[in-house]
Structure formats: structure tokens, C-alpha cells
Automatic annotation (TrEMBL):
InterPro entries: 4pyrrol_Mease, 4pyrrol_Methylase_sf, 4pyrrole_Mease_sub1, CobI/CbiL, Uropor_MeTrfase_CS. SUPFAM superfamilies: Tetrapyrrole methylase. NCBIfam families: PRK05576.1-6 (NF004063). Residues 2-163 form the Tetrapyrrole methylase domain. Pathway: Cofactor biosynthesis; adenosylcobalamin biosynthesis. This is Precorrin-2/cobalt-factor-2 C20-methyltransferase. GO terms for molecular function: precorrin-2 C20-methyltransferase activity. Coiled coil: none annotated. Belongs to the precorrin methyltransferase family. It comes from Haloplanus vescus. GO terms for biological process: cobalamin biosynthetic process; methylation. PROSITE patterns: SUMT_1. Keywords: Cobalamin biosynthesis, Methyltransferase, Transferase. It holds the Pfam family TP_methylase.
Amino acid sequence: MTVYGVGLGPGQADLITVRGKRVLETVDTVYSPGRLSRSVVREYVPESKLGDLDFPMTRDPDKLRAAWREAGRAVADGAAEDDVAFVTLGDPNVYSTFGHLRRTLDTFHPAVDVEVVPGVSAVTAFATALGVEIEAGTGLSLREAADGAAPTGPERMILFKVTDAVATDEKLTAAGYDVRYGRRLFMEQGETVVTSDPTEVAERDYYTLAYAEKHGLDRDLATADFDAETERSA
Ligand SMILES: C[S@@+](CC[C@H](N)C(=O)[O-])C[C@H]1O[C@@H](n2cnc3c(N)ncnc32)[C@H](O)[C@@H]1O
């Protein structure tokens, strides 16, 4: 039997993939690591199909390993009988708890088949929500910026886990970046905020990201010449 890692997308229930929905509807048990992912899953499966796993709020590596061994055992036991799914918001392979589960299964339950159903990640959904275009030929880096951190270097960055937007903004602005923030993008749970003003997202909320771009970047695009063309013909 198979353990499916299913990406739910950013939060709105209709942003799950057709394949993800089909898997949720056909497996015997669906495990979810949090309240938010659970509320998306509940759009597709009855409460009785939800599996129970305990995820401790700790960074202690020993406690984490113990919790994942326990979770891995429960999921592997479930998969001995039938197909099961473990869901994550966004994509299962992007900054996700699913990685812990897969490593645990690979090590302690190598006979279990694991299959991933990708999901719409915040990595791509942010662009639409924030009105950003990552043009062909340009780079985009992923970073984390928890607790006021402000990584610098790349010309364009997505920053995850922005929990102190005001402190992060101060440092990024000083380093020459223009920054936009997105909170609870494409989510039904909670208020969506898109802003360049960090004070609007000052209150700590885990589901906040930022897009930072070096001020005054050159955009070398064929279609940028439309401006010059229309000016000439005016
Ligand atoms: C542990 S990562 C999970 C990423 C997820 N697996 C994905 O592919 O989108 C969580 C971080 O992603 C960002 N994030 C995820 N979904 C988001 C959303 N709908 N709106 C804003 N930020 C989001 C936040 O910065 C949050 O702290």
C-alpha cells in the first residue's frame, strides 16, 4: 500500500490539484499536521477519515526524532492495511513537514511505498498575489527571515516565515531592497493582506512572506520596447 504526500495548495480549498483531491477521496486515512491543513482536507473527506498524529511544538532534536518515529510508525501501520495520505499546505517538498515523514519512513519502514502529489506552493502563488513577474532570464532565491532576520545578496528573494516584518524591513531597506509583504495569500482562514508597509503586517503571523527586490533593477525585455514604440508613434 502507498503513503501519498499530498500538497493542498496555499489554503483555498479549490486550489488543490485534481489528482490531490482524487487521492484524498480514495485513501482510507488522511493525516494532517495542523489545524489549517485539516480545515482544507475537511472540504473533501469526512472527520471519520482523519488520522490522529501528535506533532510537538519543539525544536529539541531528540524530542522531534522521537515524535517522528512515533508518527512514522502510525502512518506505516495505517499503510499496511490500505492507502493513506499525509497532507501539507503548499507543496510537500518545499520547506515542509512531509520531509520529516519521508525520511522517517525511508529509514524505519523502507518497504512502504511513498508517492508525492505536488501542490501549488507559496513559491509560485506569491507572484500572482503580490503582482510580481519573475521575468525569463532572471534569478529568484528562496530564504527564511524569522524573528527579524534579513538575508541579503540575491537580486530577487522570496522570504518565508516573516514573523517580525518591521525589523526585517528596516534591514532590507538599508541594504537597498524594495520589499512587498503577503499574508495568508489564497487562504480562506484569516485575512489576506498584501502591502509594502511592514506596519500593516507587524503583528506576528506565521503565514507571512515577503518579496524583496534590489532597488532599480534593469529589466532587459523585448516587450519593454513597446513603451518606446508607442512614444514614437504618438
Ligand atoms: C514551512 S513553509 C511551508 C511552505 C509550503 N510547503 C509551500 O510550498 O508553500 C511556511 C511558510 O510559507 C509561507 N506561506 C505558506 N503559505 C502561505 C500563504 N498562503 N500565504 C503567505 N505565506 C505563506 C509563510 O512564509 C510560512 O511561514
